[in-house]
Amino acid sequence: MTDQPRAGDHEQFYDLPFIGMAVTSPSSKLWLQVNETLCEILGYPREELIAKTWAELTHPDDLSADLTEFDRVMRGESEGYKLEKRFVRKDGAVIPAAIDVKCERAPDGRIERFYVTVADISQRSATESALRASSDLLANLARQVPGVIYQFRLYPDGRSCFPFASDAIWDIYEVTPQEVHDDAAAVFGRLHPDDLDAVSASIARSSETLEPWSAEYRVVLPRQGVRWRSGLARPERLADGSTLWHGFITDITAQRNAQAALAESEQRYRVQIESAPEAIVVYDMDSGRFADANDNATKLFECDRTTLLQLSVSDVSPVRQPDGRLSVELAMPLIGRALAGESPVFEWTHRTVAGRDFPTEVRLVRLPSASHRLVRGSITDISERKRAEEDLRIKDKAIATSLNAIVIADAEGRVRYANPAFLQMWGYASESEIVGLHATEFAEPQASAAALESVAATGSWQGELVARRQDGTSFDIVLSVSVVHDTDGRVMNFMGSIADVTESKRLQAQLHQSQKMQSVGRLAGGVAHDFNNLLTVMKGYLDLARTEVPTPSALAEDLAEVDRAVDSAASLTQQLLAFSRKQVISPRVLSLNESVTRMHGMLSRLLGEDIELFLSTSTDLGLVRFDPNQIEQLLINLAVNARDAMPNGGRLSLETANVLLDARSTRIHPDSPPGEYVMLTVSDTGTGMSAEVQSHLFEPFYTTKEPGRGTGLGLAMVYGAITQNGGHIEVDSQLGRGTRFRICLPRVQDSAAPDISPTTTRIPRGSETVVVVEDEDSIRALAVRVLVAQGYRVEAFRSGILALRAVAERTVSPDLVLTDVIMPDMHGRDLANRLRELRPRLRILFASGYPEDVIAHHGVLDDDVDFLPKPYSMATLAQRVRDALDRPLPT
Known about the structure:
With 891 residues, the chain is an alpha+beta fold.
C-alpha cells in the first residue's frame, strides 16, 4: 500500500476554506497533499511545501511535544491527537496553530497515512472573552483548593474590582463575590491599618513591573478579628491598559501564631545555651539526630547550625574510639545512663564534618520533654591538654625516628646522646660506641672545632662540613648547632641536627645539568617548529614542481636531489626533537634488516674512513613494531659511542638474528616475557668499559667524556626507546677488548606485513569541501593548491575566528576542516570544539610542527584524533585528508 492518497479521497475536505488540510506520510513525515489554505498559512507554493516534512516547518521548541504524540500513534497507543504548536513560515514568521491529526490504517492495522487539519489561531478573540470563557474552570478549580482563588483588576484611573472570586472569599475577607465584583473597596476596608500602605505599594509595584505579587499581611474581620493572610498572584496587562492578576489567598494565622510562640520559646532557650562557655548540643533519642546546638558547637564541628541539626552522634565521631571499640556501641549506653537520670562525664574523640578528629570531655544530662527523649551534651575541646601530655613522648620519638642525625654534647663538646640516624650515618652499631667521644672526632677536626667556638660565642651555627665515617670514608653534611643554657645562662649542652647532603649535592649538579638541557630542549623544539613550517613549504612546492618536470631529465634529477636534501633536513629536525625528548612517537611494523641497510651510508659517513662498518643480516628475520625515527636515533647514538671508543680506527659490526628467549633467559630480564624476539647486535673493537662504568651506563647525565663533548643522554635515550617498545638491552664489555650491545625486541606475528609509506601509493583524490585554517600564508597557499589540484573544493582562512564565523553564518559548509594546532587568536582544538557545537559530526584534521609536549597539551594526540605532522609532502597531505574523510563519522 502506498503513502499517496487515492484519487478522489476527501476532495471536499480539501476545499474547505479557512482551514489548512493535509495528508502526511507516517514514514517520511512529508506533506503528501495540501490545500491552498495550508499553503497560505505556511507561505509556501504547493510544489515547495510537498517537498518538505512537517517536522522541518515545526518550531524547534514545539517539535518534541509533537513527536511525542506522533510516536504514541505509531505505537498504537492512540488513533490521533490534538495540540497547539507553532509553525515557521517560509518568510521566517512564527505562526501559532491548532492541529488535529488522525491516522488511517490498512486492513492489517498498519498506518497508511495521516489526515491533518491546521487552523491559524493567531487572531484569537479578545482577552476579555477568553477570561469569561475560563471563569467556569476557575470556579471549579477554586472549590478544590484551600483559600480563595480570584482575579483582581486595577484600572488606569485607580478603580479596582474582583471580576472573579471563589466562594471562599467569605472566609478570607468576610465579603461575597458579588460585593466586590465591580468594586474592591470592601476588601481594602478589611486590611489592617498598619499593613494597608505596604499592600497597596506592593500592588502598585507589581502593576508597574508585571512581576508576580506576593505578600503576607493582616486583616481585621467583623467576626474573626485579626487574622493573617498570604497572597500570591501573577499579573498581565490588558488592551485597555488595566492590570489583571490571577492568584489565590490563604489563611496563615495558625502558622504565624505558632511561629511567634516558637520564636519566643527559642529565644529564651537560646539565651541560656549561647551564654554557656562550652559547646552545647541537644540529642533527640527518638529521631537519632541533634535537635539543637549553640554557636560554640557549630564552631567546634566546623559547620553551620542547619548542617549540624541533620547529623547524629555517629556523624560527628570516628568509626572507632582510640581503644578500638565502635563509637556507636559506646555512645548508646552513655546516652541511656543520662536518660536514666545520671550525669556521666567521659572523654570522647569527636570528628568535624571536614573529617578532623579531636579529643573532648563530654558531660551528659537529661532534658525534660513531654514528647521527646532529649539529652543535652556539654562538650569541651581538650586538644591542648592532650597535646601537652603527648609533647614529650612525641618529641622523644621524633628524635629517635628522625631521618636526620641528632646529637647532644655536653659543654665540653663530648657526646651524651645520638639517635639511630646518627649511628647509621657514621657506621656505628650502638650508642655506647660514641658516648664520651669529642664532637671533633666525627668531622674534619679544624673545621668542626671552629664551628663549636662559633656556636659557643653566638648561640647557634649552621654550615657544611666534610664528615668521616667509622671506616674512614668521607661524606658531605649540613650541620645546624644550637646552645642550651641553664637558668644562670651557663652553657649546658650543644644540640646538633645533621643531614647527609652527599646525594643532594650530586642531584643538584644533575638538576643544573637537566635545567640546562631543558633550556636547550625548548630552544630545539622551537627551532624544530620553525624548520617544520619551512620544510613543509619546501617539500610541498618541490612535489608540485616535480609533477611539472618530465622524467628522466637533468632538472628532474636536480629536483630529486633537493627533495632528498629536504628529507634529510626533516630527519635532522626529528633528531633535534629526539635530543630534546619532544618527538612524536609513531611505532609501526618494520624490518630491522631494511632499517640498518638504509642507515649504512649515513653511519659510514658518521664513523669516518678509519672505521670499517660491517653488516650481517638474517635472511628470514622477523618483523618488529618500532618507530622508524627511534631506530635511526638508536643506531646513530650507538655508532657515535663506538666511534669515540675507537680513536685510532677499528671495526663496527651490525648483526640481526631471530632468537627465542626461554624462562631462564627472561629471569635476567623480568620485564621481557618468554617468546620470540628479533636481536640486533652492535659490537665494536674499541677501548671497552670498566665494570664501574657499565653499572652507570644507562643513567641519565652519566658520561665518561670530557666536559663539553657528551651530554650523558645518548644511551639513556637508547634504553628508554627499547624498553618503551617492550624490549631489553644487554651490554658486554672489557677494557681493551671492545663492547657488544645486544638489543632484543618482541617479534610481531609472521602474518603481519611492514607498514607501507603513503608515498608508494597513488595520490588520492576527492570532491568534498575542505576548509583550511592556517596562519602561515605560504603553508595555507600550498595546502589550498594541493587540495584543489586533487579535485577538492577548498575554502581557506588565516585564523580560527574567521573560519568559525563562516561556518556559523553558513557561508561555507565543509566536509572536513584542516586546521593548524597552534595559532595566535584561537588554537585548533578550541576551534574544533566550537565547530562541533555547530556541527557535531564534522570531521577535523589537525596539523602541527610543534613538538609532542605542546600539541599533546591541546589534546591532539588522542587516539580518536586525525593528526598530520609537519613537514608533510603533497602525497602525505592528500592521503591524510582522504583518510580523515573516509573515517566513520564521529558520534
